[in-house]
Design brief:
It is a single chain. With 368 residues, the protein is α/β, with parallel strands linked by helices. It folds into three domains: 70 residues, no CATH class; 61 residues, no CATH class; 173 residues, 3-Layer(aba) Sandwich (Rossmann fold), CATH 3.40.50. It contains ten helices and ten strands. The strands form three sheets. The chain has a six-stranded mixed sheet with strand order 7-6-5-8-9-10, sandwiched between helices. Strands 1-2 form a two-stranded antiparallel ribbon. Helix 3 packs across helix 5, helix 5 crosses helix 10 and helix 7 runs parallel beside helix 8. The longest helix is centred in the N-terminal third of the chain and has 21 residues. It is flat.
């Protein structure tokens, strides 16, 4: 019976995964999953999921080989148009909310976008400890007492002392009989990653543009967290000046004024230099802007900082240009001009929410 239940459960999970994949672009563009995120799981509304089964109609209602009919006629009661049916006792279609772990969600995302697995760098420098049970010893906490070894030791003692009675095989361990599991700590190499988000918050970046950044950041986080044991996220906003903020401020702040992108890049370079050695960290800066920069001179400064202080130390630098009716969109053209052959810098144009999925593919499809 348990095996049958497990089989049905697996079938149901497969159906759920299939429905999520079919509607993934809709979920991404509308941000439905983000609003229902728990600590480790996401609740997703899925319409009309049923495991196929036989359903019997009312007695005497007719069916196959009963009554008049022609080849090709539909069996059963037929379909009624919405709003034309009478009151009845049959259930209608409902939206089913299912829970899926973030790891499963990342796997579905990777399969749908055909994202390659990332090969982290710096594994030999970041080491955690893993405990493994390797033997038996005479002392230890009761929670680690080894019942079988303790029983055998008590039996051997009673046999050697002649106190064991086969007619009354009672084995009573004493303190000297107790045996406990022992463990040894082994180094476990791990890879940590820094995701450094930067966003232009000048007057031309409105709520719609920030919502696009918020949704895309969620999916970037979901994928990268499936690839690394540890993720640290930092947030920088900038207009004419740059500053570090928390996540809430990053997505909700309202600023105005001019734009000097170099201020964000200089702060990004300073963080990397002072806090995240390239040999130990996998570093992913993501910059989102509408492409409007203050001057040609500031763009030249951005190029200089990227070449000398950022690109040599990161796995990938991603620039996403969010379309805005107020932005010139020039900056992405400047990046293409100066970094056309540099695979460490990836750009993506995000015209609207529907383009988010393609943008994620642009950024993460390199497998770096």
């Amino acid at each position: 019976m348990a095996l049958r239940i497990d089989q049905d459960h697996r079938r149901f999970r497969d159906i759920v995964r299939g429905r999520i994949r079919q509607n993934l672009r809709k979920y991404i563009s509308q941000g439905e999953m983000m609003g229902k995120k728990g600590k480790q799981v996401v609740t997703i509304p899925i319409p009309s999921i049923e495991i196929p089964r036989f359903r019997f109609g009312p007695k005497g209602s007719g069916g196959a080989a009963q009554g008049d009919g022609e080849p090709g006629d539909v069996l059963g009661q037929g379909e009624e148009q919405p709003g034309t049916g009478q009151a009845g006792d049959q259930p209608g279609e409902h939206v089913l909310e299912v829970e899926i772990t973030l790891d499963e969600l990342a796997q579905i995302l990777g399969e749908e976008l055909k994202l390659p697995r990332i090969q982290p760098k710096g594994k030999h420098r970041i080491v955690a400890q893993k405990d493994r049970f390797t033997g038996i010893r005479k002392t230890g906490p009761e929670s680690l007492r080894h019942f079988r070894r303790t029983f055998k030791q008590a039996l051997k003692r009673q046999l050697s002392m002649g106190t064991y009675d086969p007619k009354n095989p009672l084995i009573v361990p004493i303190v000297d009989d107790k045996r406990y599991r022992s463990w040894k700590s082994y180094p476990l190499p791990q890879s940590n990653a820094l995701i450094l988000y930067m966003m232009d918050v000048s007057g031309s970046m409105g709520d719609e543009q920030k919502e696009i950044v918020r949704i895309e950041s969620f999916w970037i986080d979901t994928w990268l967290r499936s690839q690394y044991k540890g993720i640290e996220s930092r947030y920088i906003i900038h207009d004419a000046t740059a500053k570090e903020v928390d996540r809430e401020t990053f997505f909700r702040t309202r600023e105005s004024g001019g734009t000097m992108i170099s201020s964000a890049y200089k702060l990004c370079a300073k963080m990397i230099e002072e806090e995240y050695p390239a040999a130990e960290w996998n570093i992913y800066p993501f910059h989102f802007s509408d492409g409007d920069n203050w001057s040609v001179d500031d763009t030249a400064s951005c190029v200089e900082v990227l070449k000398a202080k950022i690109l040599p130390f990161v796995n990938l630098f991603a620039y996403g240009q969010v379309e805005s009716p107020y932005g010139s969109g020039q900056f992405i053209k400047d990046l293409h001009e100066h970094f056309q052959d540099d695979e460490r810098l990836v750009t993506s144009e995000i015209r609207n929410k529907e383009a988010i999925m393609d943008s994620i593919k642009d950024f993460l499809g390199t497998g770096k």
